Inverse folding.
């Protein structure tokens, strides 16, 4: 789908939802939608399309996903309550002010902190690339111990194997079998010092050296890291040849009582009785261009085009970029979308009564097979 057309589809949906009197029907074969809109709305749509700047959206997404100032480490990442997340929040506040949104605020919300820094695995002098989940770190010296392969890491896989104070290596498929939570807690129960998992199915299937990051839905446990499938197979071969020692260093801080930031700005409507909220999250795993930096760029490009085209909505439109979506709470399966939840339930409970629609963007141009689809609805 053409980038300007995507912005136009979203704008049209909002125009229809803002209470304009219906006088005409538009049938667009590219969007397979029948929308009834007023003459005023059609003019607003045309002006919006003229003002829409896809490059502006792309530049924001690129900045958020590549600028080291907004990344945890060389592997990327911008996790809940981290230094990188806080710096990105300030950047987004500046962008909102620059494009002309009003009542711009950077609002702190309760969230647990995950400061995900560098992690290292060394075996026989070779350093392997790994990435940590939201669990405990190690000391600066790390853990030096024997590494043991235990298949899928279930309770049955530990039969007749002593892993006390050792590092365990497992295979995992988090789509078809179970989340990292369960083998991590089982490894801790069995006395292991740390766990390394290779995604042999499900996530991280783009390449044999791909890593995985997800929320962990658990209390803080032993250090838990992801490794590429190719490296995991190489390590398994070493283990088959005899006792294999490894040093694991995980610079990872997970603790309660942190803060994430939601950044909001407004386009005032003809009435402030109701509002539409447009949202996206700016925390991410790795370089996260698609999830969800592209959505942040798209949302702010929409705001800019509305302002530049002189559009005045029937009701207020709030643009909300929220943090701590991927992970933000220790010890619960509800550890995601924390920033947005806090925004509605703690910081702005009045939104529940006055919000007509919440248009949330998540992976807004995700490719499925040979086609790309983007859906926008209210």
């Amino acid at each position: 789908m053409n980038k300007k057309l995507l912005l136009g589809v979203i704008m049209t949906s909002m125009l229809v939802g803002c209470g304009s009197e219906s006088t005409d029907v538009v049938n667009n074969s590219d969007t397979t939608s029948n929308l009834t809109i007023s003459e005023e709305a059609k003019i607003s749509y045309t002006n919006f399309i003229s003002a829409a700047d896809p490059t502006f959206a792309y530049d924001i997404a690129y900045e958020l996903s590549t600028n080291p100032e907004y990344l945890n480490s060389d592997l990327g990442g911008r996790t809940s309550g981290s230094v990188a997340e806080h710096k990105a929040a300030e950047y987004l506040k500046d962008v909102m002010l620059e494009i002309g949104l009003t009542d711009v605020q950077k609002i702190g919300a309760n969230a647990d902190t995950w400061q995900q820094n560098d992690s290292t695995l060394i075996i026989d002098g070779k350093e392997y690339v790994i990435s940590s989940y939201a669990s405990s770190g190690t000391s600066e010296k790390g853990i030096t111990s024997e590494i043991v392969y235990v298949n899928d890491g279930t309770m049955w896989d530990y039969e007749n194997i002593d892993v006390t104070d050792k590092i365990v290596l497992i295979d995992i498929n988090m789509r078809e079998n179970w989340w990292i939570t369960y083998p991590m807690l089982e490894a801790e129960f069995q006395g292991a010092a740390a766990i390394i998992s290779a995604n042999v199915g499900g996530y991280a299937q783009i390449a044999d050296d791909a890593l995985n990051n997800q929320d962990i839905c658990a209390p803080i446990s032993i250090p838990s890291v992801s490794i590429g499938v190719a490296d995991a197979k190489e390590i398994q071969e070493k283990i088959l040849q005899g006792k294999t020692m490894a040093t694991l260093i995980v610079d990872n801080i997970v603790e309660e009582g942190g803060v994430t930031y939601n950044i909001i700005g407004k386009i005032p409507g003809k009435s402030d009785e109701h509002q539409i909220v447009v949202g996206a999250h700016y925390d991410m795993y790795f370089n996260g261009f698609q999830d969800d930096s592209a959505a942040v760029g798209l949302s702010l490009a929409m705001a800019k085009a509305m302002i530049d085209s002189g559009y005045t909505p029937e009701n207020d439109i709030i643009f909300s970029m929220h943090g701590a979506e991927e992970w933000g709470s220790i010890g619960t399966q509800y550890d995601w979308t924390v920033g947005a939840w806090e925004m509605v339930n703690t910081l702005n409970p009045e939104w529940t009564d006055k919000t007509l629609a919440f248009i949330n963007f998540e992976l807004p141009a995700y490719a499925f097979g040979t086609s790309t689809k983007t859906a926008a609805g209210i």
Notes: The radius of gyration is 24 Å.
